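User: These chains co-purify. Model them together.
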Amino acid sequence: MIRCGLCGHEFAEEEGIRGCGSCGKTCRMVRCPRCMYENPPEPKVVKKLKSILKR
Amino acid sequence: MALFGKKAGSGGAEEQAGKRKKVALVGNPNVGKSVLFNALTGAYVTVSNYPGTSVEVSRGSAVIDGKSFEIIDTPGMYSILPITEEERVAREILLHEAPDLVIHVLDARNLERMLSMTLQLIEAGLPMLLVVNIMDEAERMGLEIDIPLLQEKLGIPVIGAATAKKRGLPEIRLAIATADRSRHAVFGYGRRLEGDIGEIASLLKGGYPLSPKSLALLLLQRDEEVATLVRRIEGERSGEIEARVREKTFERRGSFHLDLSLERKGIVRGILAGVLREPDQRRVTFNERLSRLTVRPATGVPLLLAVLYFGLYKFVGDFGAGTLVDFLEKKIFEDHFNPWVTGFIKGILPWEVWQELFVGEYGVITLGIRYAVGIILPIVATFFLFFSLLEDSGYFPRLALLVDRIFKKLGLTGRAVIPMVLGFGCDTMATMVTRTLETVRERIIATLLLALAIPCSAQLGVILALLSKAPGALAAWSVCLLLIFLVIGFLAARLMPGETPMFYMELPPMRLPQLSNIFTKTYTRMQWYFMEILPLFILASVLLWLGKITNFFERMVEWLSPLMAALGLPRDVAVAFIFGFFRRDYGAAGLYDLQTKGVLNPRQLTVAAVTLTLFIPCVAQFLIMKKERGWKVATALGLFVSTVAFGSGWLLNQFLLVTGLV
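Assistant: Joint model of the two components:
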């Protein structure tokens, strides 16, 4: 879950708007579907760590 | 959008689901539906647009007590009578997909406001479970909610929870597994309203997914989709129903919605009597008190200045750009790494031109990598750490409210605070986000101000680092930028015709930032940033090397020399401006380099920093300006920004020469 840093909206990473790439940058931020604020997604390392700890 | 008539669902996914029971999560936005959805489903989730709409719906699987369930996370809805497309989709799921259980998730802190929808769902005859979420925050506020009594009054299972803290999850799972759809209480409205509802409901003879009472109420509220459904199901009888609905709505014209809303409020108050106990004097938590202080101008502005002083000046400027850069750039690169790598490259590459490419004045390693790792990285690391801390505390929306009044004078609304705050991260992204502003006028003003006076994080970090060593310079730079931002915005608002639309923003609660969140966000931002800048810095070094060996670079510096002289700057500063064409932060790093070599005095440093901050946006931002506003507007804005940048630099230089302030 991502909690938007601006409006506080909680959304799943899949619900967020991914960088469209139209600015030519390698932006991997996830934009909040409610206010468009760009939020950093959880790094893969952290996701992996969490899944290991869950087991 | 006529959602009732068509086959909804997710095709193959639904077939696969077979006879799995469906559980739909409904409720207002921001009540923790998605948290509950994730807790129930784990990793087995699909997200797809609801057929015929652009609204995304998440579906997942859960096995509870040996039984398999399909869990659907519906878009936020405030009422069973839809207004937005999201609400239409949420209602369509309730009606067409006939869930075996509807879990209404509501916020314990706003029980009175949200319980009205629970009544509507019960009234519709849907199988219900009520989750009173965010109980932990409600308790902290001193609210007491008697969950067993609420359950008794509503006649449906009710669970108190704090899903973000995993509280109540076992009870919710158990309730899903043992759901009993036969029980629920019945609520009556006033005699007249009940009479009207009863008259319409008695005419509905077909089979519907909602109770006749609920349908009658929606018809009386002129719900077009329900009217279409009734026409389709009732056939010839629909004429009489429509005539009766018309008659009733005419009789109660103007007051029906108000009457219904007041009656529902009355019922909710009745239910909550004895259930909800608020302290005589509501306990104001520290976070709430702090939240109030941040949005009131009298306290909010000093607090903002304190945040900027300790966060940006002391932490980013003193620690990041001072201690860390001194260590990395001077101790590691200048004293050890660069001499070693220069010797190594010269040993294996006998040709001077190729040596220059890697370890020369503009070498890929001695300039590009040194800038990226030795100067930019420690500065943006401290900046992102500070930024993530503020972000996780919930300070940004309060900052938006604080500056909202000033923004209105610039022809913008509080909504424009979003791209402006974003601009301090990345101006390119922020320029794209201006499309969310309501009017073209607002979009142009916001694009102009972003291109002109909002430095991106890297540029801001480097400039703060540069200027923090000369406090007078930092004050002059800040005042200049603020003045230009306000004056240009104010003039743009006067010169461009149009009205400023309304804006309001819901404030999420302020909270103690979580260390794990801060480090995760900082790490992700740094990783993304470094991966983005490193290739660009290397490319810029190669181009500069090419420019040097072809003498093109020298000619550019020569060409810019009169401009530098007019600004009272040494000829070498032209190099930083040429760097700035590639990227804003690259230009700022160039300035940093010049300052450490002692080329600039404090006055020249201030003038160069102001001009470079205002200077033409980086290539990526310019391309997005062109994409969003078109060639004409983007070129006009680019020319205007450059003129203002050099004009302001010239004026500032004259002012500082006369006053000797810096």
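Chain A is about 20% helix and 20% strand.
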